[in-house]
Design goal:
two-stranded antiparallel ribbon; about 270 residues; alpha/beta; seven-stranded mixed sheet
Length: about 270
């Protein structure tokens, strides 16, 4: 598998290769323990009007392309099927909307995959009245990119949460192709059923992580909580349908968390995970 990585010292954002080389499985990239939430400023704060116009046009074209694609038709079909729609209703509970939080989107100016991912999020909000406000964060986003994202009705976060947002209300975390560490951070911050049950997570397949268990200590540390969560996870894989959308969405799934009558949440707090 070929991946290109962009890093600015906060987290590494992995962008899959644009060429399809058979079945690609997400390989967890291991990082050192991150600092807690802290204010964030891009190194590129300037808003360039010409760049802004170009990026805005790229995003508008991307939204149109995705909206008319077979991939998005299949994506919507999956969301509307009873198995998945019932899960969203359980997450909503008595609330009317899920807020959406996007981590690790990547550069919408430089790469098509981040534009496709943001396009899907925006189209979901337009399609479903139960999708609320969209919040976006990635340390690579420039001031110009942030201004375009905000012009599309989203909010760019000013704090790097390290994916440690507590789900105090129903929340859709939109995290395709994020690092294993970020999924682990999210689970750790919400490792109690009254919070996990408020989460709908779109991201790398947890099943794939489980199938790639190795004896390497650093990988075990990065994926242990993900694998522990599998026993309480209902996972629904999406189909990329065409090669155009494979780099942006391969091996992605919807994940919902709820224990069975005899299930208990694994106790991992004492292990520092």
């Amino acid at each position: 598998m070929v991946k290109s990585a962009i890093s600015d010292g906060e987290w590494t954002v992995v962008l899959p290769s644009k060429r399809r080389h058979g079945k690609i499985k997400p390989k967890p990239k291991i990082q050192e323990e991150e600092e807690e939430k802290k204010p964030w400023k891009s190194d590129d704060l300037e808003i360039d009007p010409q760049r802004q116009a170009r990026v805005k046009l790229k995003m508008e074209n991307s939204i149109k392309k995705v909206e008319s694609s077979k991939f998005y038709a299949a994506f919507l079909e999956k969301l509307k099927c009873p198995e998945v729609s019932d899960q969203f209703r359980l997450v909503l509970g008595t609330e009317t909307q899920l807020q959406m939080v996007m981590y690790g989107i990547g550069s919408i100016e430089s790469y098509e995959s981040p534009r496709f991912q943001l396009s899907v999020a925006i189209l979901m909000k337009r399609e479903f009245d139960w999708v609320g406000d969209i919040e976006v964060f990635d340390p690579v986003l420039s001031g110009t990119e942030s201004s375009v994202i905000e012009s599309l009705g989203c909010t760019v976060l000013s704090v790097n949460e390290q994916a440690r947002r507590e789900a105090l209300k129903p929340t859709l975390f939109f995290m395709p192709h994020c690092e294993a560490n970020l999924y682990s951070n999210l689970l750790q911050a919400n490792w109690r059923m009254d919070r996990l049950c408020r989460i709908a997570l779109f991201g790398n397949s947890f099943q794939m992580y489980e199938e790639q268990v190795t004896l390497k200590p650093e990988i075990i540390r990065a994926t242990k909580r993900i694998i522990a969560a599998r026993r309480i996870t209902s996972e629904f894989a999406i189909e990329t349908v065409s090669d155009d959308y494979f780099p942006a969405f391969h091996d992605s799934s919807w994940h919902f968390f709820s224990p069975g009558l005899d299930s208990e949440l694994p106790l991992l707090g004492s292990e520092g995970l």
